[in-house]
Amino acid sequence: MGEYSVMLALKKSVLELRNILEENGDTRSYDIALENGEISIIDYFSYLDVIFSTEDRLLQTELEYQKIIARLNDHTLLK
User: Fold this and answer.
1) CB < 8 Å & 24+ apart, contacts of 62-71
2) What is the model's pLDDT at position 74?
3) What DSSP character marks residue 26?
């Protein structure tokens, strides 16, 4: 797979991960549910673990995306 194709795939992944976090990354409802005893502390921390893992994956994907953008720009500048 060429670098341009990799860049497009990474861009798509970044956008998807951002969308997931925007739709599901709010902890307020889980905070309230925990305070009201509607969920256990284990469920609460499991949810937080998923959110933090997704945020970490987003950061790693954004890093790879920026690296490949830099490589593509470097090739453009050298021409």
Assistant:
1) 62/14, 64/10, 65/7, 65/10, 65/11, 65/13, 65/14, 68/3, 68/6, 68/7, 68/10, 69/7, 71/3
2) 85
3) -
